[in-house]
């Protein structure tokens, strides 16, 4: 035992260097785990930031859609008969039928099936454009056209149109 103590005492600089080396290794190990933890926290924070950006963008989109719907609430649906008189008075439809479709609570939907015989196609498409420009718009959902054999540019047609507004 005395020999070991004598060996330690005669070389104190070696032991001091070994102790400093050991403390450096321990400090390095501790800093690696601390930096790994900090890196993981930064990555998590970046994910949360991106999620927050997406949520803010969705909220903005929702605000825009709500403002459009609020503007629609004040506008009643333009009657299809007044549109027909304004744009196709010389070619009235043979038949106008109401089609039943349910609408969401607080909303009103109108669907119409309009049948025409021997109507010029440009006049028919002009009527559709005028109907689509109303506020709220009538939307052409389906069209069936049969060409007229007797008059070029004329046809028989069935239009299905719908419009929706807030009650």
Search tags:
single chain, 167 residues, alpha+beta, Alpha-Beta Plaits, four-stranded antiparallel sheet, 4 strands
Short note summarizing the structure:
It is built from 4 helices and 4 strands.
Count, helices = 4
What fraction of the residues are assigned to beta strands by DSSP? 15-25%
Strand order of the largest sheet: 1-2-4-3
Cα radius of gyration in angstroms: 40 Å
How many structural domains does the protein architecture include?
2
Global mean pLDDT: 82
The CATH class designation of the largest domain is Alpha Beta
Structure description:
- The longest helix has 62 residues, at 12-73.
- The chain starts with a helix and ends with a strand.
- It is 54% helix and 25% strand.
- It has two domains: 2-71; 80-166, Alpha-Beta Plaits (2-Layer Sandwich), CATH 3.30.70.60.
- The chain has a four-stranded antiparallel sheet.
- With 167 residues, the protein is α+β, with helices and mostly antiparallel strands.
- β1 (95-99) and β2 (107-120) form a beta hairpin.
Can you lay out the helices and strands and say which pair or pack?
Layout: H1 2-10, H2 12-73, H3 80-87, E1 95-99, E2 107-120, H4 121-132, E3 139-147, E4 154-166
Antiparallel strand pairs: 1-2, 2-4, 3-4
């Amino acid at each position: 035992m005395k020999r070991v103590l004598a060996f330690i005492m005669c070389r104190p600089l070696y032991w001091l260097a070994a102790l400093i080396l050991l403390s450096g290794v321990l400090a390095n190990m501790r800093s690696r785990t601390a930096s790994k933890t900090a890196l993981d926290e930064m990555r998590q924070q970046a994910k949360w930031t991106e999620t927050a950006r997406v949520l803010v963008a969705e909220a903005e989109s929702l605000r825009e859609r709500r403002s459009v719907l609020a503007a629609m609430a004040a506008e009643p649906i333009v009657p299809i008969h007044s549109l027909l008189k304004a744009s196709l008075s010389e070619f009235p439809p043979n038949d106008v039928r109401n089609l039943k479709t349910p609408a969401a609570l607080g909303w009103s939907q109108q669907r119409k099936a309009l049948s025409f015989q021997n109507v010029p196609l440009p006049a028919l498409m002009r009527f559709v454009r005028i109907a689509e420009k109303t506020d709220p718009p009538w939307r052409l959902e389906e069209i069936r056209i049969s060409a007229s054999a007797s008059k070029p540019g004329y046809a028989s047609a069935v239009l299905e149109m719908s419009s929706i507004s807030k009650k």
